[in-house]
Amino acid sequence: MAAFWIYALVMAPMGILIGIATATIGFTAWGIVVPLVWIGLGGGKDDGWMYYALFTSIFMDFVNGLCLTVIYAIQEKIDWKKGALIGVPACGIAVGCIFASKVALEYFKEDIKKGLGYLVIVIGLTFIIRGVSQWRKAKELAKATEIQILLPPSQINTLDMPNHKVEDGPNETIIDYKEDLPGTISESEDSERHLETHGNEIGCISVVSGPIVPNGSGSIPAVISSRTMEHQKKEEIEEKWTVAWIIRYTLMILITVGSSVLSGLLGMGSGTNFVLAFLYLMKFDLITATGTGVLIMTGLMCSMAVCYLLGAMPAVHENIFWLWPYFVLPSGFGLIGTIMGAFFSLKFSPLKMNFVIAFLLVAVGLIAVVEPYIIKAVDG
């Protein structure tokens, strides 16, 4: 069994990295922590250490998730209705599956030692593709729109520009002017935000472009687009019971059930599964998808932790008092990483966050792949 100082030396940076990844994409500690604790401390043979490893991962995911839930709730980046609608049955499924977890853990024992490094790397690469795609769209949007005015819908503002005026189109006033004006924002920033508008952000940005014609009055009446928040929300509402709607919600149900079963049987946080589902199926923006996903993960991990402590896993229940340093240490550093990751998520644009997430997931995946061999070498 590895000395505690070796465990602490490895888990401190790993906890911070896991916390950052959790804040940005709902990453679960399972893929790194379980092999690390089981192989590094227990040598990979004692089943008791497998349960300690699982509880360490569950405890980390719960602490990270609870912290993120508070942060993203303050920022109003959680869809509470969908979170509850999916999270409550997910917790019920997970608790029901925990009674079969011993059989599942025994069956997947060798796979648990390896973690999910390769899968995490693949997910990271998909965010590179997503980021490149959005970057190209941002460039195309920048070419098509020279001015984007940051004013609320229906508000009228007069921008002083000599000898020009605006021609109104059927839905919005149209302006074409390449110089920076009062009330404008940068091309790249606005293009990125335009691609990621969702929910309460819609209607805050009005894109205007088109011909400018001489006007002797020496000013431009810049009338903001009549496509208000309400109008754009109506455009986003997909008609129910269409083929696309049925496919999206069927996939959402399958992902919910599958992720809940994995949580109950193997102790996985499954946060990334829900984040990706909200992102691609429910069309959430990245931060709202992450906030809602970690909300569900927090509920799942709270349910699992309570079941473990109440005796579902006797090895944890009977030894919890002397094992607490192994749970608290990584969770404390994970909390530091979580706060850092939340700051980055709220500070960076959604486009940049795609590349940040890709880097984190590839790094975490590579660590998950090589860490069992490093631990064995150090442990001798």
Describe this structure in words.
The structure is a single chain. A hairpin with a 4-residue loop joins strand 3 and strand 4. This protein has 380 residues and is mostly helical. It has helices spanning 4-25, 30-42, 47-74, 80-97, 101-107, 109-114, 117-144, 187-195, 229-236, 243-266, 271-280, 286-312, 314-347, 350-379, and strands at residues 147-149, 156-159, 165-168, 173-174, 206-208, 212-213, 220-223. It is globular. Helix content is 69%, strand content 6%. It folds into two domains: 4-134 and 242-379, no CATH class; 137-236, no CATH class. Helix 2 packs antiparallel against helix 3 (47-74), helix 4 (80-97) crosses helix 10 and helix 4 packs parallel to helix 12 (286-312).
